[in-house]
Write a structure and sequence with these properties.
Elements (H helix, E strand, L loop, with lengths): L1 E6 L13 E6 L9 H32 L2 H6 L4 H28 L9 H25 L3 H17 L12 H7 L3 H14 L6 H25 L36 H5 L10
Antiparallel strand pairs: 1-2
Helix pairs in contact: 1-3, 1-4, 1-5, 1-7, 3-4, 4-7, 4-8, 7-8
Length: 279
């Protein structure tokens, strides 16, 4: 950012005002080379990481419910922890791989600087696991493809673009700066950008605490789902109607009890035959 100040000098003798003196000084927020590409790279990586983590985890758990193969997973001798590790671990691994590919590709065009590489890897892992858990919850909650895309497209993507992915929220006016602090994605992007440049819009401790808090919330939701069995069995075309059990969960009708045959009315009304007379 460039700050321009105009200083007017007043001469005491005669009261004449001299020509204004223009002073220009720079305030470097992140990169002293003033390269926009350097600033965009962390935001671009975080944008891809958030969207890919949610999409991979939500589609991964929704399609077994849609196809009806979720029963094979539920009947297998594995614990709920192993199920979550399988789905969330696969989604997070793919997201981290995509983020590293973007980072390696950016290094071919932009001279990157990473001041805290260990913190960068830590934020990468923490964000990928957290939003993969969030996508796992969305995949269990959705009962159709419309709901599956509702939260990622209408909630997460706008919050990511408005969370400082491609700009610093410190440049905003005071009112919009305060509004941006209500966006939880701001803390994720700010902490990840701090690992690159050593400076951030939000304190690094607050960013780390907010990310850990969101991780705990997602873990609590997953625990609640497995304890209550919320929508773990059916989805999509096999979803249940309101107030009606799903087709796969309906009880099979019991066979009708066979009723014993009624005695013939003739047996009840028949009179004994008269005895034969002796001659």
């Amino acid at each position: 950012m460039t700050r321009i100040g105009i200083v007017a000098e007043i001469h005491a003798d005669g009261g004449r005002v001299a020509a204004p003196v223009v002073t220009v000084d720079h305030r470097y927020w992140y990169n002293p080379e003033i390269r926009s590409a350097n600033f965009i790279v962390p935001g671009l990586i975080m944008l891809s990481l958030l969207t890919q983590s949610i999409s991979n985890a939500s589609f991964g758990i929704y399609f077994p419910r849609f196809a009806g193969t979720i029963y094979e997973i539920l009947s297998a001798p594995i614990s709920p922890l192993e199920v979550v590790l399988g789905f969330v671990g696969a989604a997070a691994s793919k997201s981290i791989l995509i983020g590293l590919i973007i980072l390696a590709t950016s290094a071919l065009f932009v001279p990157l600087r990473i001041d805290h590489p260990l913190w960068m890897i830590g934020f990468l892992l923490l964000t990928a696991v957290t939003f993969s858990l969030f996508g796992f919850v969305i995949g269990l909650w959705a009962d159709g493809f419309e709901k599956l895309q509702l939260v990622p497209l209408l909630v997460v993507t706008p919050l990511t673009f408005l969370g400082g992915s491609f700009y610093a929220i410190g440049m905003l006016p005071p009112f919009w700066h305060a509004v941006s602090l209500l966006n939880p994605v701001v803390y994720l992007i700010s902490g990840f950008r701090w690992a690159f440049f050593g400076k951030a819009d939000v304190n690094i401790a607050i960013s780390l605490g907010m990310t850990a808090l969101f991780l705990v919330i997602c873990l609590g939701l997953v625990t609640y789902i497995f304890r209550t069995g919320y929508r773990r069995k059916s989805g999509g075309r096999t979803a249940a109607r309101p107030g009606r059990p799903a087709p796969a969960e309906r009880c099979t009708p019991r066979p009708c009890r066979s009723t014993p045959p009624r005695r013939a009315r003739a047996h009840r009304c028949a009179r004994p035959a008269p005895a034969a007379r002796s001659v």
